[in-house]
Write a structure and sequence with these properties.
With 609 residues, the chain is α+β, with helices and mostly antiparallel strands. The chain has 19 helices and 26 strands. About 6% of the residues have low confidence.
Length: 609
Amino acid sequence: MISWITRVFGGKRKSETITQKTHADHALVFSVRDNIPFPRLRQLRFLNRVFSKSEKRFFWGAFLLFLVSLGAGVAFLTSPHIARTPTQGGTVIEGLVGTPKLINPLFAPLNDVDRDLSILIYSGLFRLNENLAPVPDIAESFRWLDDNKTLEVALRKDVRFHDGEVLNADDVMFTYQSIKDPAWHSPLLSHFRSVDVVRVDDWTIQFKLSAPNAQFLSELTIGILPSHIWMDVPGTNALLADANIHAIGSGPYKIAAFTRDTKGNLLAFRLDRFTDFYGTQPFIDEWQFRFFGDQTSAKEALKNSQIDALAFLPWSDASEAKNNLFSQVALELPQETVAFFNTKQALLKDEGLRHVLASVIDRSLLDEAVKSFATPLDSPFPFIQTRATSTIMSLENARKELNRLGWILPTPDSTIRVFVAPTTSKNKKTMAPPTNAKEFAFTITVPEQKDLLALADFLKRRWSLLGARVEVRTQAPDRLLRDALADRTSYDVLLCNMLLSADQDLSPFWASENAAQGLNFSNIADRDLDTALTAMANATSSEALVGKQENFAQVFQTLSPAVILARPRYAYLISSNIQGAKNLRLAEPSSRLLQASSWYLKTAWGWKK
């Protein structure tokens, strides 16, 4: 080997001398190249003249082995430090059921589609994280003053609206004053009616409360309006303003275009990534929304790959729609599936009877019944586990308790219990069934949804084992709630999902003032429940709130106005090309889109951090 290396890179060889003597121009080339670095390497072009065939094979084989070894060494040294990382780019198309009407955070609670668009276009003082806890967003810092009745918020100075204007205290003041203005007709008015908003300086705002409120930060997630656009719009005209469609906010995405049909109906919206967004820049460049009249047509579009994502499918429907083109993400809200006992019905006025019906719902059996579409609950709070867990009663003990309450089987062959009033003989009380005894019978009213029908069937089978005659009656979801609100005696047991606010406020469902009208479908009016609700609302710290929640759960268990069954899970079907999506716990349905900042379609090699 040494000999042929010397022959190539050594002194002048005969062949070279002849070449230089017979070709003067070659000599000139050599003399010039001798002045550049590594001139001898240039002589590799003479390998074919110097080496024999076997020597050439050996040389090039060794050279190839060197290159392979070099590449393997570099890969070995660098592979622990590099990886495919998300990079910006791409478009996601999501289907929404409904159409946008007012893309304005002050009106968005009236329309789910408006909420979805607003949460990407606008940003608020605070936002809720995955644990439903408020964290600063536009707010840079905050502090409580005046015995926790005044909240002072300092704003970030790097926040801009989509038109380039700086967001400051004037915009925050205008937003909350507009909420409090009755002329705007904002559904958020009741939350801030007794709150005074004070401008301290260009970057500082104070909220003065009438009483301490440990959950007030969660109320300040409302998107901030640009005052320079809205200040000349009278409150009476706010619902008609063009800025409700050509919306400008300070969120991670801005409106780029929208499409209407010939009748003026909005068909699609396109949002582009806002490059001057103050927070974490999302990876997706473009977000498109297409609107459908119902979920059936939206599912069909998903199957035909016309859209990339569709949210809040019932789990059973998602299983039918899913294929290898889509992945499935689970969504959970502060929502509960509740069987409300209507205390206006004579049968269910009895607190003892309600307690028996609630106590035989074994959560281990319920877990089998709900399978993958819900999480069994043992607390009146969707995301809070209290120590006052439900008392589980065996069927045998439940039957004994029913006998004690006067609900008996009239004959050994009877399967349905009847109520008998105690009668007094000479020495003791006896039970004697009258000829027209009242049966232990009631109806479960439930929306026509597969998941809820499965739970209704579970309740029917469980309560039938106690000797009850139970029927299940179904209705369209919107009609069921409309009828229940209009006629409080139209049902015995109402099985439905109830969505709580992010702070899991239970007063809309259990306060006495909402029994005759509102969402208190048990129609229960109880002083102890009201006291427990008021105590939670007036808690001045997180620690105090926990104790008040424990107390409410204990009172609730004693009264048994309903059975809290499960926390529903919904499916979010997304294209398998989309990466970074994960199971989510949400404050409200639109919050799912806040995870858009972690979605990505494209990757590139980069150094690990």
